[in-house]
Design brief:
Elements (H helix, E strand, L loop, with lengths): L2 E4 L1 H9 L3 H9 L3 E4 L1 H8 L6 H14 L2 E2 L2 E2 L11 E2 L20 H14 L2 E3 L3 H5 L1
Parallel strand pairs: 1-2, 1-6, 2-3, 4-5
Length: 133
């Protein structure tokens, strides 16, 4: 079974380009989607003035029925106990935890990316910095 993990911002693209049905077809062919609590937390931070967008994103995620996995690593102030796995290897996920807009947090992005690296067969992102690494 092929496991795919989307960067949180990709869910916006899926909605914009009406790709839900195509992803559902792939799921029927054995694709499994993965998600972490960090991604759910990022969607929860969408402001109330964009409540409709937030609702559409959650409905999309529910319809895809992703398997919630623990993040591979723990970052104080980002990770949730019970939803993160302390990683045994010595690794460094750099980036300061920003106050305020948590959706732009490079530590969160690094945690999602590292989790995808260790858990998914395919990681879909539109972050140009991640493509170069």
């Amino acid at each position: 079974m092929t496991m795919i993990m989307f960067d949180t911002m990709i869910y916006d693209k899926i909605l914009e380009h009406s790709l839900r049905e195509k992803l559902m077809q792939l799921k029927m062919k054995g694709i499994e989607y993965l998600i972490t609590n960090v991604q759910v937390d990022e969607i929860c931070t969408i402001e109330d003035v964009k409540k409709e967008k937030r609702c559409k994103l959650f409905l999309l995620i529910v319809s895809l029925q992703p398997r919630k996995i623990k993040t591979k690593g723990f970052l104080l102030g980002v990770s949730r106990l019970g939803h993160a796995q302390f990683y045994k290897d010595k690794i460094s996920i750099r980036g300061e935890i920003r106050k305020g807009d948590q959706r732009l947090n490079p530590s969160r992005d690094a945690l999602i990316g590292f989790t995808a690296l260790k858990s998914a067969d395919i990681y879909v992102t539109d972050d140009k910095k991640k493509e170069k690494k």
